[in-house]
Amino acid sequence: MTATRDKFGRPIVAVTGMGVITSLGAGLAENWSKLTAGQSGLSTITRFPTDGLKTTVAGTVDFVAVDPFTSTDLGERLADLATEEAISQSGIGSKGDFPGPLFLAVAPVETEWTAREQLAKAVGGDAEIDYDALLRVGGGGRFTHFHRRFLFGSVADHLAETFGTKGSPISLSTACASGASAIQLGVEAIRRGETDAALCVATDGSVNAEALIRFSLLSALSTQNDPPQAASKPFAKNRDGFVMAEGAGALVLENLDAAKARGAKILGVIVGCGELADSFHRTRSSPDGKPIIGCVRNALADAGLAPEQIDYINAHGTGTPENDKMEYLGISTVFGDRTPSIPVSSNKSMVGHTLSAAGAVEAIFSLLTLEHQRIPPTINYDVPDPAIPFDVVPNKARDARVTAVMSNSFGFGGQNASLILTREPLSH
Questions:
Q1: Are 91 and 185 within 8 A, CB to CB?
Q2: Does 316 lie in the same domain as 242?
Q3: Model confidence over 14-56: pLDDT tens digits?
Q4: Exposed/middle/buried for 97, CB within 10 Å: 0-12, 13-18, 19+?
């Protein structure tokens, strides 16, 4: 049998399984129905006291409980649930025997304050709590469970053991582009012929007091807390920041020929991946927009598509004044006169910014858009920004012919990634 290749002679990468969990709910069906209905998963934070904080709203996944709470434990549990759904839908391999590697996007790991307090108490008395003291009390085996949770690779190790992935599991963190980066690694592994299947997962459970305060100190978060459902306003003139959120997305990627050979249902195709990073600033975008412009162009070039072949853009669309402006600059530079007429929307208006998980979660929503031929809206878009003349699909979902979607993830530190997804393989 002649192998099916793309126009560059590479194996075609298909998606055969997806799983997702966000503040909207668990699973593809619940998320899609609420997303297209314009519902919000954002709510007032109840997980920890918010007295004195400027931001009191988030997209927490409170219906998944971990006790005691740690961000790492929650992220791990969310990843479990999303991966279970994706592998089940795919029907690949056997239980606990996934026939390919794992690429995991996960938030940077820190010990929770409760753990730090226990370590500090163990130092005892009036002794100085310095590094040497913490090493001394931490070295006796009493706090081994803290240590495991502190290891960056612990979630990937768990997933690899649970689902039986092959080779060394890869953990990565490229800020808000992480989820898209994990997918790109899976795509590249299949294109290189290293594997016929890859499991790409992205998760984040890091809505805790410390993270909230850090983002607040950067003036990155919305302070429009009442009502919480209206806090996230991507591309609106009255936007004032993003809303932290939790979630996970998982995708099973396969060589198209291998997937067809086993009779798998093809959910979509990843035809292009683009990335470009700079080190202009820890949080701000380069004012000339070159990293975003280059990233978008790289994705189009990798897919072998022209800008006019993109039917819909699933924007990064955080709702910060800076990001939305820079995303418009990047898109308008590449798409030119077509910019005002191409549909653009931001899932973050409803689910919030799922941080490390966002790239995968939004890629899944993009694939569902292709499946259902329905574009989710950007809610809370009541005051248009004349400086950003996007067609933002305001407030209500829109039925449309969609054959190719660009899904953007532009992160802190100039970490930029774009994916291009189609329903069917592109003809040569």
A1: no
A2: yes
A3: 999 999 999 999 999 999 999 999 999 999 999 999 999 999 9
A4: exposed
- Counting every residue, how long is the chain? 428
Write the DSSP assignment of 235-274 as a string of letters. TBTT---B-BB-EEEEEEEEEHHHHHHTTPPP-EEEEEEE
Q: Is residue 90 part of a domain?
A: yes
CATH assignment at residue 224: 3.40.47.10
Whole-number pLDDT of residue 427 = 67
**For residue 156, which amino acid is it?**
A
SS3 292: helix
Confidence of residue 243 (pLDDT cuts 50, 70, 90): very high
How do residues 285-308 score in pLDDT, each as one tens digit? 777 778 899 999 999 999 999 999
Same domain, 211 and 227: yes
Contact 20, 249 (CB under 8 A): yes
Name which of 302, 298, 299, 267 is nearest 422 in CA terms: 267
**Residues 163 and 199 placed together within one structural domain of the fold:** yes
Catalogue the active-site residues.
176, 316, 353
Kindly state the tokens that stand for 214: 């850090």
Dist. CA 273–CA 253, nearest whole Å = 14
Q: Range of 123's domain?
A: 113-150
Q: What is the pLDDT, as a whole number, of residue 251? A: 98
CA-to-CA distance for 130 and 359, rounded, in angstroms? 38
Answer yes or no: is pLDDT of 157 > 70. yes
The answer to whether residues 144 and 275 belong to one domain is: no
The H or E element that residue 298 is part of is: helix 290-303
Do the domain assignments include residue 131? Answer: yes
**Residue 281, pLDDT score:** 66
Flag whether 410 is in a domain: yes
Residues 194 and 220 in one domain: yes
Q: Are residues 192 and 141 in the same domain?
A: no
